[in-house]
Specification:
single chain, alpha/beta, 6-stranded mixed sheet, 7 helices, 40% helix, elongated
Amino acid sequence: TPLGERFLPYAQRIIALRDDGLQVVKDFHSGVRGQVKIAAPTPFLLSYMIDTLSHFRHQHPAVDILIRERNKTTIFDLLLDNSLTLGLVNAPVFARDMLQLLRMRDPIVPVTGANHPLAQGQNNSLQMQDLYKYTIFRVSMFPQMTAFIDEVAELAREGSGGAVIAVPMVMARRLVMMGQGLTFLPASYVRAPIASGEFVQLNITDMPKLYSEPVIIAYKNRDLDEAHQAFIDVFKNMWQQLIVE
């Protein structure tokens, strides 16, 4: 009802406050010093959460941690019903009941496997047209990147046997590691394989600058407790070079 819609935010705050109070009692009796509940899509888990979790556990060993793998829409729902406290999603975030706590700009970089022909001249400058005779895996993350990759994929049909190959980021990362072709991924997502020599970042002089923009969000009407604020502080320290105001 119209009245119910107006009352709903207050009811959600009441339930959230009750749940937070019960959690404090539970933590006190069990000796736990808080709980962190966060969710993110798979690529963000692999990009940011592994190192963050390791450092947070070292600094706060008595805090329980729940990390879930969910898509953006589901994360919004879980934040609203207090199943989660934090979400890591890709911008933009238009929901008015969500608070954006931290935002990053992660450069999109072209990568290929170490044994790929393009990797042999890794110190040489390339142009976009040099890629079109090879298989390019199309990964879509946000509108600007989708438009760019769509055009590249169409021009690279010959190198892909006449087909556009659209795959999830996790699959593209694995296929490129196997030497199957090249793709465009966030720098944080391929940092480890580049450092280990499994991936080579290509130097393409006429590629437009593109960025992934991950955002940590929370429900606007729910205050963060000490454990979640500590997690955000660790996350911020870990990824300071990517954070924007």
